[in-house]
User: What shape does this take?
Amino acid sequence: MTLDYEDHYCKMCGKYDKSAWVNGGYCYDCFKLHNLEKIRESIEEGEPDTFSSDYVVCPYCGNAMSNEALIDYPELYEDGEHELLCDECGKTFEVDTMVSYNWETHKMEDD
Ligand SMILES: [Zn+2]
Ligand SMILES: [Zn+2]
Assistant: This one.
């Protein structure tokens, strides 16, 4: 498989991102926005699919809160169900947090 120009430049903003091809031709930032757009479309269609690892998206109005905005809500980083008030539409919605862990092990050094 050979990679050419389009594989290393974002088709949305034109920024160089050597892994753009992994994200369907988008740089990391545009890929996030692209996914957010899809979430907002699903809300408009009446079947909210708000699953995201980048944003907490209000299922009523599509308002997205990024990691930076969530610093004030440390409980959202804990596994389980939480409630959040949307500051855009004023409605309260439920947030399911799914925390995943990764482990890697190494042999102890021989002595
Ligand atoms: Zn881009
Ligand atoms: Zn909202």
Observations:
- Residues 73 and 84 are 9 Å apart (CA to CA).
- The mean pLDDT is 91.
